[in-house]
Amino acid sequence: MTATEPHGPCIFIVGCGDIGQRVARLELAAGNSVAALARSDDSARTLAARGIGPVWGDLDHPDTLNQLPAALATLYYFAPPPPTGGDDPRLRALLAALPAPPERVVYISTSGVYGDCQGAWIDEAAPLQPRTDRARRRVAAESALLAWSGRQGVPCIILRVPGIYGPGRLPVERIRQGVPVVHPAEAPYSNRIHADDLAAACRAAARQGRPGAAYNLSDGHPTTMTDYFQRVADALGLPRPPLVSLAEARRTFSPAMLSFLEESKRLDNRRMLEELSVVLRYPDLASGLPACLAEV
């Protein structure tokens, strides 16, 4: 596979999965040239079929990152850190391999960096208190990116994202399998954003995000994971998941699932709405879930 070298500054997406491709569609519709990192021929063909120029490279093998575009208008970095460790060598490798600094960087992080806030409403000034290794890697990545941004003089915008839902992203199989959820009275708060709104917010951040700022990207109407699963089940006409106590969940749920139950927070999204001028198409589950069902 050979690299695609765009003509002039381009939009470059690293981690061009579902959200990356949604952002790419918005950028292409605006008449911009879009390229994305691809680490396999299959990925390259998928990107090319969507009008996205594939650029070969594997973040886990920095020596392959030698064909990156020389002129970048916006670098969208959506790739996750590795599944282990306390840092994000993938992000560091990409930044080190860039032939020239981009005009700006938009980085997707996670709301997990705030840790457990015991159900409180929090804005972007809340302290970062990650409780999981996954969230600690994100904090390390944010710190590394901001330090690099300061040295290079490149505006960098950090987006702290909670659970994402949308067509093809609903927990359909889990509900069909009857996997239990925590009783509503004990369920912690969780936050969500529809995939289309997330993509639109990413593009808004690239255009008017404040350099060095972080933004909570959520629909502003947190509920609980239990409420979410019940609403999805109702929308699909499926039986609601069985309920268990939090104590029973702690005995039987996987560590990954438990990590979501041990944190409770409600994200304040006012900075996103006011500074990025984002108008949400789906400001709550009542409006967002029906839009997902056509592709289920």
- Kindly report the CATH topology of the domain at 10-168 and 192-221 and 266-282: Rossmann fold
Number of helices: 11
Helix content: 25-40%
CATH superfamily of the domain at 10-168 and 192-221 and 266-282: NAD(P)-binding Rossmann-like Domain
Query: How much of the polypeptide forms β-strand, as a percent range?
Result: 15-25%
> What would you call the structural class?
alpha/beta
Distance between the termini: 34 Å
CATH top level assignment of the domain at 10-168 and 192-221 and 266-282: Alpha Beta
The CATH architecture name of the domain at 10-168 and 192-221 and 266-282 reads 3-Layer(aba) Sandwich
Report on the structure:
By secondary structure, the chain is an alpha/beta fold. The chain has a domain at 10-168 and 192-221 and 266-282: 3-Layer(aba) Sandwich (Rossmann fold). Helix content is 37%, strand content 18%. The protein is built from 11 helices and 15 strands. It has helices at residues 18-29, 41-49, 89-97, 133-152, 172-176, 195-208, 225-236, 246-252, 255-261, 270-275, 285-292, and strands at residues 10-14, 34-38, 53-56, 72-77, 104-110, 121-122, 156-161, 163-165, 181-182, 189-190, 192-194, 214-216, 223-224, 243-244, 266-267. A 7-stranded parallel beta sheet has the order 3-2-1-4-5-7-12, with helices on both faces. A two-stranded parallel ribbon has the order 6-15. A two-stranded parallel ribbon has the order 8-11. Helix 1 (18-29) links the parallel strand 1 and strand 2. Helix 1 (18-29) crosses helix 6. The longest helix is centred in the middle third of the chain and has 20 residues, at 133-152. The radius of gyration is 19 Å and the shape is globular.
